[in-house]
Write a structure and sequence with these properties.
Blueprint (H helix, E strand, L loop, with lengths): L5 H25 L2 H5 L2 E8 L4 E3 H11 L5 E14 L2 E14 L8 E16 L2 E18 L14 H4 L10
Parallel strand pairs: 1-6
Antiparallel strand pairs: 1-2, 3-4, 4-5, 5-6
């Protein structure tokens, strides 16, 4: 491939970093631990508050915690990326919705976490991945689920079950 202008290289690098962030959200929502590993360098550090340590320890925690939720949705918002050669710093706003099932007489609830992923990315062997992540939490909320939309058996529901490990590919 021909050398890119600095402006085009910046766009290519930013797109690659954004792709990692989207892949991370998808991996969490799908409980896809192998996909999640592709978002981090093997020696990366993750600081989610509840957990601070290496990626494998983080995944071990998620394997216990996330299946307790009926579903999760991580929605990425504003992003700022600063490139410094083979290092980049990214701040990404996220709304994380966790559907928690009814338990002990309490109704199901939706936990909404409003957070920011503050990441140090590194490009190693031509590939951008997270080297260090700190999650910053903003005030969130918990809403009891008073009812559900009137879905029928004709509606496709729960992406974890509808398309495990891959994109839902209509027409295939």
């Amino acid at each position: 491939m021909a050398d890119l202008t600095p402006e085009l290289q910046q766009l290519v690098d930013e797109a690659a970093i954004r792709k990692v962030l989207v892949r991370y959200s998808r991996a969490i929502d799908r409980l896809d631990w192998d996909l999640l590993r592709t978002c981090y360098h093997p020696d990366a550090i993750d600081d989610h508050g509840l957990y601070r340590g290496d990626v494998e320890g983080f995944i071990d925690l998620l394997k216990v915690k996330l299946p307790l939720d009926e579903s999760t949705t991580h929605f990425l918002g504003n992003q700022e990326i600063e490139l410094e050669g083979d290092v980049a710093f990214a701040e990404t706003a996220c709304v994380a919705r966790h559907r928690r099932p009814a338990a002990d007489g309490a109704p199901a609830n939706d936990y909404f976490g409003f957070l920011r992923y503050c990441d140090r990315f590194e490009r190693r062997d031509g590939e951008w991945r997270i080297a260090h992540r700190v999650v910053v939490y903003e005030p969130g909320r918990v809403d009891d689920v008073a009812g559900e939309p009137a879905y029928t058996d004709r509606h496709t529901r729960n992406i974890r079950e509808a398309a495990p490990g891959g994109l839902l590919r209509p027409g295939h």
